[in-house]
Amino acid sequence: MTTHPNNPLQGKTLEMILNELVAHYGWTELGQSITIKCFQVDPSIKSSLIFLRKTPWARKKVEDLYIHTNWKRELQ
Fold this sequence. Notes:
There is one protein chain. The protein is mainly alpha-helical. The protein has helices at residues 14-33, 37-40, 45-54, 56-75. The longest helix has 20 residues, at 14-33. The termini are far apart.
């Protein structure tokens, strides 16, 4: 297995990423940042994971927000 030390997603599952984003932003702010229904109407980790695993463009937005959030944390 090849490791990529500069890849912030290395070793992170989608569930881990989503849990960290929810802990950091909360569902309301997350739903405003990424306007998808599973974050705005009766949100849950389980329903969001189902949607994100089936929808590559939405998963990319979540991953991009995670990378952006971690980059900002590192600057602080």
